[in-house]
Request: fold
Amino acid sequence: MKLTILALAAAALVAGSVMAEVPTGKMGALRPDQQQFFSLYKELVETDTSVTNGDCTQAAAQIATRLKAAGFVDDQITLFSVPDHPKEGGIVAVYPGKSSTLKPLLLLAHIDVVAAKRADWVRDPFKLIEENGYYYARGISDDKMMAATWADTLIRFKQSGYKPGRTVKMALTCGEETDTAFNGAQYLANNKRDLIDAAFALNEGGGGDTDGKGHIVSQSIQVGEKIYQDYKLVATNPGGHSSQPVRDNAIYAMSDALLKIRGHEFPAEFNDTTRVFFSRAGAARTDAMGQAMVALAKDPGDATAAAVVNTDKGFHSMLRTTCVATMIDGGHALNALPQRVEANVNCRIFPGHAPAEIKDTLAEVIGNPGISIELARKDKPLATSPALDPAIIGPMETLSAKYFPGVPVIPSISTGATDGLYMSAVGIPTYGVPGPWGDPDGNGVHGLNERLEVRSVYIGRDYLFDLVKALAK
Reply:
């Protein structure tokens, strides 16, 4: 789930010659290779892959059909699923390189999406629609643009006969958007490690931000992420007849607990990555926010600077652990006192802290031993940050200078969560790459009317294609 830091409010240059070559998005204006990509992208987007009604296995099979049509043979393609989750499958494809000593490069993306209710959307969420310079559809950004680009890259390699130095592998998986679902990336990491073995992986989590007026103001490289953890809170009570109410009420107890969590602010903290981000991103700005970001990076105890920085919800989240109530369920009858109330509290934990530690903090904040707290999942590895390896970061920066001259490239941690967690846990450093960009409002990702600028699609695709070639040499 891509949630990069919101746009920096400083004007920046937009790539001239590269931008000038961008099509309008209409099929007649696309190059033949772009038309081929659009066809794949459209098919993937229009295949519902939500956990409620969708079928990732079908989407993976469609990708396999296109790879085979381009010349991939059966032993270069692995379709996988498990009996308990037949519709949550994925695909791994292998494009051989020339070197027998260089370890492969892994291209990772998820093909599942957040559910979308047609009645709430202006447009059909599972029809790719182009309007006013944007493509609209569920998953158009998160994460099917990247998935389609990786598959398209391998197809173009095969069709052109390109011979990289490194073997290039691709893993398109399901389950990233639903923490309690079958997760294909976790399955591959734990059960098919040799199949996806790689020196490093490229993934979602990075990318560009605009000022909301069409100007790209930053490109980020994700080199870490917060830990995603859900906590199940439960309040129980003997209940009784609603005509004889008492103050000891499970709904009221849970309400009090959630209000205390709402009022709790975890302390701000920095690590090496976030300190670099706030220093560089702040220096690129000319407003009060920029000055505050630089000041806070120098002195985390600067209360005046913190007050300014915390007005931006993205920056606020990047500086600390956050916990928020996301779901609640309680009661059993309209005319009865509630016997049980459950709530889900979703935490995004700053690197260096463990889920058990945050559980203890929540219990202390709530201060009611009658509210039980349990981890919704206990089998997730802790997120780790990859090294800022110049051999990997360098090509990203060089290509960014070509495609987005004048735009700073900044390492960051993601306030969201990605499947890179599972790759890093088994020794495959995973980087969220620059390239495609989004707007300050989040482009409807996980919400209504998800969209991605047409320029972002095609320039981002070209950037990522060149990046894979550069890193596979």
